[in-house]
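Incident review: delayed structure delivery

Summary: a single-chain prediction request sat in the queue longer than the usual turnaround. Root cause was a stuck worker, restarted by the on-call engineer. No data loss occurred. The affected request and its eventual output are reproduced below so the record is complete for anyone auditing the incident later.

Affected input:
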Amino acid sequence: MSNNYQVQNLPDYFKQYKKSIKNPKKFWDKIADENFVWYQRWSKVLEYDMESANIKWFKNAKLNITKNCLDRHLSTRGDKTAIIFEPNNPEEEARYISYQELYDEVGKMANVLQSQGVKKGDRVVIYLPMIPELAITMLACARLGAIHSVVFAGFSSSAVSSRINDCDAKVVVTSDGSYRGAKTLDLKSIVDEALDKSPQVEKVLVVKRTNQAVKMKEGRDFWLDELLEKAPKDFVSVIMDAEDPLFILYTSGSTGKPKGMVHTTAGYMVYIGYTFKNVFNYQENDVYWCTADIGWITGHSYILYGPLLNGATTVIFEGVPTYPQPDRFWEVIEKHKVTQFYTAPTAIRSLAKESVEWVDKHDLSSLKVIGSVGEPINEEAWHWYNDQIGKKKCPIVDTWWQTETGGILISPLPFVTPTKPTYATLPLPGIQPVLMNEKRIEITENQQNGNLCIRFPWPGIARTIWGDHQRYIDTYFKAFPGKYFTGDGALRDEVGYYRITGRVDDVIIVSGHNLGTAPIEDSINEHPAVAESAIVGYPHDVKGNALYGYVMLKEVGEDRDKENLRKEINHLISEQIGPIAKLDKIQFVSSLPKTRSGKIMRRILRKIAEGDFSNFGDTSTLLNPEIVDEIKNQRIN
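Output delivered after worker restart:
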């Protein structure tokens, strides 16, 4: 990545942004041309039709993303550390993998996959913990032109088999087990169970991680280390078309059936490379750490592809924030002199509950930029993060984007955009957000709420849902014709900053008033006894809908009189938002049902509030499936 495309200051941002909106094709043409290597240049920068959701970037270009992630760095950065692997157990030594070593390992893995019958266009399901083999396998798939589909290594066997079946994968890469905090998980038996429902899988390649005894099926299951020992390290990257799929990543659908979002090669590469460089203000000798799991889009884009495209050093962390103690994150930052740290508001909130002594034990002075991802960050968490971790000198990049967008769309740029707590601020160059009202009319004035849409395609946009393009059109392009509908609501303030107010289906109409759940939750979370909350609507004879609150207390609130707490919470809401937003029912819970990426499953909470226990969908993919029964049994009638 050349430095010409790192936005330098606020006037430069407005200049770049204006150029990118006036002539998006010319803007992206220049970035693609000057910052990446290609086998063949494109014949057309962009061809698109929003109605049919048919979008093609860099038409007829030929490339391989791994040539940009690996090969081109070897002459100048061959000895530089590409990946720092920080294991679950701090007693185990960290691994430092150079660009040359990574290139060699990816070549071997590509040869192994090819020897097992994998060819261009085949799908490979990867069910691995956060270990280097996960990154190596993804890159090896990309090198030989296979489509990787990573499934988070905490999902149930039914979630694994449904994804294998949907994309018709013939090969699965997994491990004997994984470490997660104090637990050891048996991944291989989960895969075995999944394959009872996915008989088309021909080969299972197994990484040795925990060395626990596992069953190996003759002719189907192979130890990966034995195959790698015999494999040559040279593998010439397969020439890919710009629009050839790079990966399929499944995201939860509102119907419960997962959606296989398809990201293609060239546009994704250009967009992720550009956004990583700018959003994290990456400089040559920085050490970058994103704490997400590679099983999510955040890990694909901003642990693996974005950093490697920029020749960066990226940390892969196997553990959890609180193991063996609640200072593990801060210990890792100090140990590896991390400069950019990117994590989820859920993690920030849980660590903020701990004594600040855990933070003060560590030298965090290497940090330059800190970021949040996954959901809007509430004000209390933002200030704690800013004060305690950033020491008021590190800009917070509060990033907004989705699996479907491929990369970050709205975010402050560090040392460029003045930040504002809870606001994702301004769109990145090339991104044209618009707010739409329910009548499908664009809201042009500021200080307004609306449905957040994007007017013009960007290179990182997903191209389809695997095997179901009509569902892709219906979900993202039908509600507001000619625009991509994000499904999120947003507020635009007086200077044009965007604040994401949550899913539009989290807007509840109470007595004719549109109430977004995010601001109500923010005000509840400011109560000193509250750790986290979730609000849903349920049918009410008089109001049409009433508000039901699920509130999780900090330890300090556990022994408080619950009726008084309910009054205090409603008083706070009444003061900050108005009496109309007061909750009719408040249920105190020990935890909230969440996906592994930290999103609260409101669909389940809504059904419980309504008293409908008929079909919660597959709850085994939740981080804490057992909580559903607990909440259901304690529901307030």
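Verification: The chain has two domains: 3-320+399-490, 511-633.
Action items: add queue-age alerting; document worker restart procedure.
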